[in-house]
Amino acid sequence: MKYYNARTLFLFWVLHFLLTSTLMAQNYERVDATIEMYPKQFNSVEELSAFITRDFSTEEEKVRAIYTWLIHNVSYEPDEYKNFNFNFKNYRERNQKEEKTRQRVIKKTVKEGIAVCEGYAMVFERLCELQGISNYLVRGDVKTHFHDIGRPFKKIHMWNVAFIDGNPFLFDPTWGAGKYRDRFIKDPSYFYYKTPPKLFGKTHYPHQQEDTFLSHKFTKESFANMPLIINEELELEALLLQQQGVIASALEGGVIPFRIKSKEVQSVKYSFGKEKSTVPFTYKSGILSFEIPITLGQENLLIYFDDAPALGYKLK
Fold it and tell me: Which pLDDT score is estimated for 119?
């Protein structure tokens, strides 16, 4: 029997991780390149599923293909919400109408390339079903604007959980497709593909707490009261001070102190909705520290790292 010292085992796992990561990246490139050659629309979701069955074999490849096709070929269109308005006399009729609505939304999404979050999520769900991949829909709340800070929980968004090789992962193809600012801005992103829960939970909270996939207790109230954490790399636990989204403007000394676990930045700025101002900061042992001078009468505070929005607070 051979025995290996700790250094040898460590080097083995490092090499294994690097090799696995490299192979996964190469595999993603092949999947994404294949999806680029797919039609932009399909007559049915079954037709799209047949392409995926033909070209991919593993669960990882198939889920990647599903997400990639959606974020590149479906545009967000809020007028589609009218497809969800219907009346019913009893629960049986409601369930029948809901299933018909689901089928209609899925077909329209793949055929016309427009949807709201339900369309993205339902197509993702149905394609996973057709590929034999365990998955389910999640309804919940999202946090995107200053007015979302402190308000009651609402079920206003839908996303997905899919199991790859027995492990659950979080997906939001709607947010992965782009942004809506009076119009849809196409901006495909893989940030919402298998997003780590500590990053996903900054902006999404499910109706059922267990669907956060967080080890610590993170409640609807905690989500509602937290600030806007806009910087993608900041995790939920990054804020060592100012963890609440509403800050009293009448502070002793007239400044708001911040300590944040972050990567090193080149500049820290802030604004109250007007011009940005620069503040001095220190960075030591992974902790970014700075103070922002506050004046009465302000409503919102936006903090920038390297000129990119990072954190948002309401002032009272």
Answer: 95
pLDDT (0 to 100) of residue 196: 96
d(CA 76, CA 187): 11
Question: Phi then psi for 182, rounded to 5 degrees?
Answer: 70, -20
Q: Which residue has the tokens 């959606």?
A: 70
Cβ-contact 311, 299 below 8 angstroms = no
Q: What pLDDT shows up at residue 23?
A: 55
* Range 188-199 average pLDDT: 97
Quote the CA–CA distance of 247 and 293 in Å, as a whole number. Answer: 13
> And the tokens for 157?
């968004």
Single out the residue of 173, 167, 197 nearest to residue 60, CA to CA: 167
Residues 28-79 pLDDT 10s: 999 999 999 999 999 999 999 999 999 999 999 999 999 999 999 999 999 8
Least confident of 93-97, 127-131, 237-241, 312-316: 93-97
Q: Which two tokens stand for residue 177?
A: 């497709």
